[in-house]
């Protein structure tokens, strides 16, 4: 590919054994992509190289002021050996939205998609065959100027890492318990909630740690001002089924515009469900629960896929959803999405992108 050099490893690593239980994001493949940006030069030196540590100045902007963005996507192995990506250009378009917020230079979306295809096909043997497993793809950009003044860097590193991964939650498709966070906030309008940037996740960790101590998988964030309206979960967007209608928080600038969220809204509408994006108060959900109208809750995300929520705890109120079982709409969403992603069904034009064969 023009503008991309490839330097293959001479020391391929042992791959996880077939059938091994894969965690999430803990093992990396033989290669990674790197590219640099320097003021006056733009993006340059796009290269695929053996996976390894990168050298940074201890004064690099990202280490002090968290100037970084990242993405999350997956490569899937179909039963017949096709290698598939899911809407990859959407991730790089979103990365550019995050980049703008973080003062990071814009990427060439087509170049990122095409170079990603080369990288994934080079390490395609690493795409796991286990049920519900895939090759998780992590593009990132970090500010790399060695200077302590608080201002955007004049030098950046773009990298793409590949990690054979299993389900994000150890429980797999089993419904997860979630805790409504009332003390800490994740984002406010005008902040960085809509951007995929490390700082959002750093500031969420304390709440998540407390949730874990209490036996919950993740937290559901409320709006940062009134703490009344539902935002999203730590690594996924959230959907509720109330009285047969599917509702999900609107994109108000404080939550991530999930690609799985957007895809599920379309899949469910195509199936004839009423899907509404609007402001949703947590009190409204509690009232619907008391009235017996809250039948399902599920999260959506690249890593999380479709994760049914079996229990939602808000203060002293514990809402048990659908007896802790996966409900029909969540099950339909899961099957439809995973069938498209793993190439078992044809989705809407352009969603599943075949990049090669193994
Ligand atoms: N919200 C947050 C905070 C996330 O980290 C993610 C994961 O990427 C999502 C939502 C879901 O986004 P997507 O469906 O694009 O993976
Ligand atoms: C993803 O779903 O790709 C994510 O980035 C979530 C996460 C592990 C932060």
- Beta percentage is 25-35%
Number of domains: 2
Could you give the count of β-strands?
Answer: 18
Q: What is the ordering of alpha helices and beta strands?
A: EEEHEEEHHEEEHHEEEEHEHEEEHE
CATH architecture verdict of the largest domain? Alpha-Beta Barrel
Helix coverage percent? 10-25%
The bound ligands are: pyridoxal-5'-phosphate, 2-OXO-4-methylpentanoic acid
Mean pLDDT over the full residue set: 96
Calculate Rg over CA atoms.
21 Å
Instruction: Name the poorly predicted regions.
Output: none
Q: Could you walk me through the main structural features you see in this protein, from its secondary elements to its overall organization?
A:
- This protein is α+β, with helices and mostly antiparallel strands.
- Helix content is 23%, strand content 31%.
- Strands 1, 2, 3, 4, 5, 6, 7, 8 and 18 form a 9-stranded mixed beta sheet that branches. Strands 9, 10, 11, 12, 13, 14, 15, 16 and 17 form a 9-stranded mixed beta sheet that branches.
- The longest helix is centred in the first third of the chain and has 14 residues, at 88-101.
- The two termini are 20 Å apart.
- The mean pLDDT is 96.
- The structure holds pyridoxal-5'-phosphate and 2-OXO-4-methylpentanoic acid.
- Pyridoxal-5'-phosphate is lined by residues 72, 232, 235-237, 256, 258-261, 300-302.
- Residues 72, 232, 235-237, 256, 258-261, 300-302 line the site of pyridoxal-5'-phosphate (PLP).
Give the secondary structure arrangement, pairings included:
Layout: E1 5-6, E2 31-38, E3 42-50, H1 61-65, E4 68-70, E5 73-77, E6 82-86, H2 88-101, H3 109-122, E7 134-143, E8 155-165, E9 176-180, H4 198-202, H5 205-213, E10 218-222, E11 230-233, E12 237-242, E13 245-249, H6 259-270, E14 275-278, H7 282-290, E15 294-301, E16 305-314, E17 317-320, H8 328-341, E18 352-357
Parallel strand pairs: 1-3, 9-10, 9-16, 13-14
Antiparallel strand pairs: 2-3, 2-8, 4-7, 5-6, 5-7, 6-18, 7-8, 10-11, 12-13, 12-15, 15-16, 16-17
The structure holds pyridoxal-5'-phosphate and 2-OXO-4-methylpentanoic acid (COI).
């Amino acid at each position: 590919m023009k503008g991309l050099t490839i330097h293959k490893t001479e020391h391929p690593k042992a791959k996880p054994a077939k059938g091994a239980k894969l965690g999430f994001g803990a093992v990396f493949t033989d290669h990674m992509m790197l590219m640099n940006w320097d003021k006056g030069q733009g993006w340059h030196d796009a290269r695929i190289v053996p996976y390894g540590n990168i050298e940074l100045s201890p004064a690099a902007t990202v280490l002090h002021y968290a100037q970084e963005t990242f993405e999350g996507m997956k490569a899937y192995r179909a039963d017949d050996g096709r290698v598939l990506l899911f809407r990859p250009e959407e991730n790089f378009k979103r990365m550019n939205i995050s980049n703008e917020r973080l003062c990071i230079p814009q990427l060439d979306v087509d170049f990122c998609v095409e170079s990603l295809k080369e990288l994934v096909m080079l390490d395609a043997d690493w795409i796991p065959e286990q049920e519900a497993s895939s090759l998780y793809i992590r593009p990132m950009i970090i500010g790399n100027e060695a200077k302590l003044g608080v201002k955007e860097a004049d030098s950046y590193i773009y990298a793409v890492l590949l990690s054979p991964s299993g389900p994000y939650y150890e429980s797999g498709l089993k419904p997860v318990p979630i805790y409504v966070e009332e003390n800490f906030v994740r984002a406010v309008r005008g902040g960085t909630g809509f951007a995929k940037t490390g700082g959002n996740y750093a500031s969420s960790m304390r709440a998540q740690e407390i949730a874990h101590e209490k036996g919950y998988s993740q937290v559901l964030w409320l709006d940062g001002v009134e703490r009344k309206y539902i935002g999203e979960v730590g690594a996924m967007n959230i959907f509720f089924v109330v009285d047969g209608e599917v509702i999900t928080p609107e994109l108000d600038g404080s939550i991530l515009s999930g690609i799985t969220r957007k895809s599920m809204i379309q899949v469910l509408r195509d199936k004839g469900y009423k899907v509404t994006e609007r402001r949703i108060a947590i009190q409204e959900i509690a009232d619907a629960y008391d009235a017996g109208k809250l039948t399902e809750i599920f999260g959506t995300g690249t890593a999380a896929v479709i994760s049914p929520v079996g229990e939602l705890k808000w203060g002293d109120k514990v809402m048990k959803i659908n007896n802790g079982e996966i409900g029909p709409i969540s099950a339909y969403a899961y099957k439809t999405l995973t069938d498209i992603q793993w190439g078992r069904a044809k989705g809407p034009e352009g969603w599943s992108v075949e990049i090669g064969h193994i």
